[in-house]
Amino acid sequence: MTETAQSLSTDANTQIAEALNQCVAETVVATMLAQNFHWNVTGMAFGPLHALFQEIYEDHFTGQDDLAERIRALDMHAEGTLAGMLKRSKVNEAEGAPDDKAMIKQLKDAQETLAETLAGAGEIAAKHGDTLTEDLCIERGRTHEKFAWMLRAHLQ
Ligand SMILES: [Fe+2]
């Protein structure tokens, strides 16, 4: 049965919001990764990489807002601190000053992790009949798989 934010049980809302908060956390950390790399990338591919990293962080900035606002529509608390996000996230921040190839690899790995996390959150939403959250997770997952492919293509 299809549920709405209002008809879902508190238990369902809690489980869905927990999964979505992990999606928000990882999207925020990946936003920072992409912006960090947008600023610091060097080398002969500077132009296209600088532009691609910008495309990614702009997408993620919108994505984190959509995910967090879905949590609020479910009447749950959206994680709003960087410390909390770093604790929840399976995507890690960059360390030191990676070269262009290492940047692409780390951001590709982040996109693949995010695609998995979004797929998992979508499954939890589907289990509870929350098709609107499931739809958002599918849309975000597809975007992360697209970016994973675009980044992976640089390494082949
Ligand atoms: Fe810029």
From TrEMBL:
Residues 18-156 form the Ferritin/DPS domain. One of its GO terms (molecular function) is ferric iron binding. SUPFAM superfamilies: Ferritin-like. Pfam families: Ferritin. Keywords: DNA-binding. InterPro entries: DPS_DNA-bd (IPR002177), Ferritin-like (IPR012347), Ferritin-like_SF (IPR009078), Ferritin_DPS_dom (IPR008331). Transmembrane segments: none annotated. It comes from the Bacteria. Gene3D superfamilies: 1.20.1260.10. Belongs to the Dps family. This is Starvation-inducible DNA-binding protein. It comes from Roseivivax halotolerans.
